[in-house]
Structure formats: C-alpha cells, structure tokens
Design brief:
Nuclear Transport Factor 2, Chain: A, single chain, alpha+beta, six-stranded mixed β-sheet, 2 domains, 12 strands, about 35% strand, globular, about 325 residues
Amino acid sequence: MTDTRARIAENLTALFRVETKGLQELAAQVFAEDARIEVSAPVGTLTGPEEIVAGLIAPLRAALRPARRRDLMVFGGENRRDNGGDWVTALTHVTGLFTAPLWGVPPSGKLVYLRIGEFWRVESGKIAEARLIVDLLDLIHQAGHWPLDEAHYGAPIIFPAPETQDGLCPANREDGAAALDVVETMLGALHVFDPGSFSSEGQVGAGGTWAPDFAWYGPGGIGSTVSWPGFVDHHRAPFLRAFPDRKGGNHYARVGDGNYAAVSGWPSMTMTHRDTYLGVPATGKALTLRVMDFYRVEGGLIAENWVLLDYIDLLQQMGVDVLETLGQGGTAADM
C-alpha cells in the first residue's frame, strides 16, 4: 500500500530538484487543478498549480541556490476536527545560498535554513488544500538584519530534528491518537493562567502534560528554550503581558501519528495588544494570529514542541511593516 506521507514528501522534494522546464508539468501532477494554498504574509492565497509555482516554488528556487528541502518531520492522518480530511504535516527547511531577494528580504549571499511549517490536505492522491507558515522573521535574522526595537526573548537557533530521529513517516501510527490526546489535554488547561506567575494547572509536575526537561523551539522573534521556567521567561510571560486576553484553539486541523501530533489554526488566536511586544508599544488593537504547533510525545508527556507563527502578519496588524522597513534600509539594529 502506498504511504501518502512518503509520496507527498517525495513530490515536494522533487519540486526543488526538477529542471525548470519540467517544473510546471510536475506541479500539475502534485497539486489538484483547483488546489488552494494559503501562505503566510506577504504571499497570501495561491490557486491552481500554475499560481502555486509562480507564487511559492519559483521564488524559493530563484532566491536560494540550490534550493533544497531538508525535512525534519513528516507525518499525518485523519483530521480530528469536524471538517475532517486526510492531512500530511511537515516541518522543513529550504536551504541554499541566499543570492536573490525573497519576498522583500534582501539576500546575504550566505547559506540559510529557511524554516517552513506545512499542512497539506490530500484528496485522490493530490494536494487539494494547504496552509504554510514561512518564517521570514528568522530569515531576516539569518541574513544579518533586525528591523525591530527588541530582539529575541529566547535563543534564535536553527530548528533541530526530533531527539529520537524518528519524525519522518513514523512507523507506530496506532500511537497517534494517544499523542494527540496528550496535546489536547495540555491545550485545554493552558487557557487559564495566573497573571502573576503565568502558571497554568496541569502543565508540569504531577498530573502534568509536559516532561520536566521539555524543549520548546520558537519562531523568529521569540527563539527557543527548555523547561517550564525557560518557557515562561522566554515566551509565555512576554506574550501574556502583551496579550492578556488571548484566546486560542480555533484549529482547522489536528492530527496524530506515531509519537507525534500537530495542530494549526488560520487564525488560531484572537487577542488585544495591551503592552509592548517585540519593541512595539501597545496599540489597543484587536489582533489575530496564525499558528502551527508540532509535538513529540514520550511516555505520555510532551518532550518537544516546534512552533511556527505568522509574525509578519501579526506585526502588520500592530502597525509595523517589517518588509517595508527592510526595503528602506531602516533596521533598528543590524546584526
């Protein structure tokens, strides 16, 4: 029996290796004729193979030489949300020498690892629908610029593969439901928090859902950290101070596969900007946030969490056009 996960991964890899003259023909085999792809800002909605190539694949191939996918994990299954569907999720880097501008980000001429989170809905063997978050804020940092008045809260590292090195089409697929159960329990408890300590019941310790030494890998602007104290100091506290009324969980897809689970909302979060965040003073504006989370569960606890957030879009809502700032050469602190 054909493994849908493996086939989609192979097809996506091929889109970066095929000769230019064969790219459009291959795309017609990978994507349904009416496929609709939603990509994080500033790309937007792409419909059909020709538009997907022109708006997503071709720009990546032109900017990164040679552009190559390096998948960290590929898994999927039946969507637990009411809208259902067979989804393949992937966390990847597209690598190469950054030799030409990409969506407003100036090139560095050096090797970059552009992280992308992906949710692909497959129908009759082809991709019919997708959501992608491209971490342009991290690419900007890798290229030697920083256009904001505040730097990362955690460490701006390249995302690692899972510690267990088994995230590519995991074999023990029957464990996926239990992994997703753990994640959903955590998400349910995370809504309520103490405004002083930023703690939430049911997260760590007896009856908790996180391993004591869990690793949390955040996107450009936040950075990565480990353990609950690190998570609070380097992400949760700054975020909740800025957005104390945030509500999340509005997901279009939740899937579990092996020891892995992934959830995504477009947008997932609604909130009000009440305090300075990433150097942007409070605006009082109502905001939305697109989210992707990938989890590895071990022994009934979350051991690793990779997070992609559409911060280019969020910052635009806060009145900061990062890409326009870069275009004008007005970086707050060149790295």
